[in-house]
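Homework help board

Subject: predicted structure for assignment chain

Our instructor gave us this sequence and asked us to write out the predicted structure in token form, then describe one feature. I got the tokens but I'm not sure how to describe them. Can anyone check?
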Amino acid sequence: MESHTHMEAFMPAATRPGAITNPVTQTAPAVPALRASTEPALHPGQPLTLPPQVLVEKRDTLASDTFARWLTDRQRYVESQGWHYGADLDSYDLNPETRHVIALNADRAIVGGLRLTPIAHARHALTWGMLTPAMRAVGLDAPELKSTRGLWDLTRLIPSQRARLHSRTQMDVLCEIFGAAAADSLLSAALVPRWIFATTGTFYRLARRSGIFFNEIARSSHDRLSDQVVFCSIRPDQGVNELLRRRHENDRFNRSAEFLLRGLAGRASD
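My token output:
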């Protein structure tokens, strides 16, 4: 069994494994009807107040109005990507162990988020359904997916849906979200986890330029980077430590590290 020693290297002693517990909910809670958001509107060009709070919640502890707004923003995003139309509510939202990681600004507007769900095997993941047959064949042989222990499916990694943000600002928010999600995974899991997910070639390149080095497992054969689907994995403890180790290589990595540490420290101190 793997330990949490990677995480302990940069965690305050009071927040190391064992300091935070997460009781298991036995039944899925009722889901509120999707309704129009009451968030203050953000407009293109409006300065973004970076998130003073990143929530990491199971469904039963997430405020119903926040969950409804999270569903609304997710619906906007998936429709903009042409994935499907209508309410974005699926089995992961009914799974009591799913973590919803949501960044809120000072006005309580959602400025980014992601979702993490424990899975028994990569083939059971919603992400698996986004892959081509050729990508699935590669995934079945991927060494990092041979062990199914501690496997989580990362879905709905979305930027702000209420403003056109500069790519660097989006990465600031996502780095803070990544830090909070990594801390939660490492504090609450019995095993050091591995996340799997699918993203675009454009985001994969942007993340690497910002110091987040996901492991590419397979990639679709589209010519345009924005059309490519990249199937990735990452062990969050390794991803965090890699960025911290390389933070002084350039200003971009250093900035990413600052926001990642904000998210990490915020979750670890909860």
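Reply (TA_rk): Your tokens look well-formed. For the description, you could write something like this. The radius of gyration is 18 Å. That's the kind of observation they're looking for.
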